[in-house]
Amino acid sequence: MTKIDPHFADELKKYGAKDFDACFNCGNCTAICTLTEKSTNFPRMMLRLGMLGLKKDILASREPWLCYACGDCSETCPRQAGPGQYMAAIRRYAISAYEPTGLTKLMFKSNPIFVFVTLLIAVFLGFFLFTLKPEYEVSRWIFAYLPYAVIHNMGLVIFGFTGLSMIWGALSMILNLNRNKDKKEKSDVSFFKALSLVISELTTLKRYQNCDTEEDSFWKEKPWYVKPWLVHWAIMWGFIGLLVATSLDFILKDPVTTIWWPSRILGSIAGLFMVYGTSLAINYRWKKVTKAYSETSAADWTFLWFLWIAGITGFWLEASVAFGADNIATQFIFLVHTVISMELVLLFAFSKFAHALYRTLALFFHFRNQG
Ligand code: SF4
Ligand code: SF4
């Protein structure tokens, strides 16, 4: 039986969907969106579901994740209903609904709670980090009050908990998508073909590129290297590259003596991508160049600044290795770099970051059912 929640529209506003109930269902946004296809009908249909309080239908839809937040629909909405912002809000709502702890819900709805949790985790990770560097003077001082094993094991438990939350979130999304599966929808595209289409999309962001080609797009005349799809691409692949480089460092036990170690070269290139992408994204949001960049939540700012600081401090550490500088400033930068990087990983399931997982899944099911 379909359940309607009359308070759902108010609930969505807490996630950033401001005036979406001003929508009078004209369909202009769906017509303007280059990503809607014969099998999809967003953002208009998603707005209708929100207004009618059909939250289960939203959670059971892959359409929120097929939108790349270009904002073209918001620029042209005759009612200023902000359909692009609405799509971002229902993604936030879905992230908090799929993960099991309720932590994301609290953090997305309240900026003070978000800041408190982020700082608390940063302090804890700082302590955890010293368990990896027990020879530091500060570490000896901390362990005199809090045993090494307690901090270290608690850190491992928390990282394990994040991993389990991610798996739970992914399973929850898959179950929801299957619940809503249209009986007429056929999986005509094979598993491997759909997988190759997902890889191709993540490699090129071809669908996102289409957003910038419309006549009335602010970005149409701008050079390719400043377009939002390239910014998104640089941040995404920059982060993935850094994750791979860090994992290789860890597995290969990099002696930290040269910047020409293969994993270091990969890390430097990936770091350049990430700093470039995040610098542009921060600049666009700061200047509010379009509607899509004009409303930035505390969580969005934190996410971008964390990525930017992780990239910049990474280069500082590279330079320290190159010039053999091992002083208190470098140790402090090391602490900041590692705490922020670990926090990004730790918050994966509980932040905007989770869209990387959910969009990938949604794209897979979308391609699989295209036939
Ligand atoms: S969000 Fe705006 S453009 Fe879209 S259907 Fe509603 S009124 Fe029309
Ligand atoms: S923000 Fe862009 S991709 Fe998303 S629904 Fe609007 S026009 Fe489509």
Query: Count the strands?
Result: 0
Small molecules bound in the structure, each named once: iron/sulfur cluster
The gross shape turns out to be globular
Q: Termini distance?
A: 29 Å
| Oligomerization | single chain
Describe this structure in words.
The two termini are 29 Å apart. The longest helix has 32 residues, at 148-179. This protein folds into two domains: 8-98, Orthogonal Bundle (Fumarate Reductase Iron-sulfur Protein, Chain B, domain 2); 103-368, no CATH class. The chain is mostly helical. It contains 18 helices and no strands. Residues 23-29, 44, 47, 77-79, 81, 83 line the site of one iron/sulfur cluster. One iron/sulfur cluster binds next to α6 and α7.
Summarize the structure.
This protein is mainly alpha-helical and 371 residues long. Helix content is 67%, strand content 0%. One iron/sulfur cluster is lined by residues 32-33, 35, 42-43, 67-73, 83-84, 87, 211.
Descriptive terms for the model:
binds iron/sulfur cluster; 0% strand; 2 domains; Fumarate Reductase Iron-sulfur Protein, Chain B, domain 2; 18 helices; globular; mainly alpha; 371 residues
What order do the helices and strands come in, and which of them pair?
Layout: H1 8-13, H2 28-32, H3 44-52, H4 55-59, H5 63-66, H6 72-76, H7 83-98, H8 103-109, H9 111-132, H10 137-145, H11 148-179, H12 191-204, H13 206-211, H14 228-252, H15 262-287, H16 298-323, H17 328-346, H18 355-368
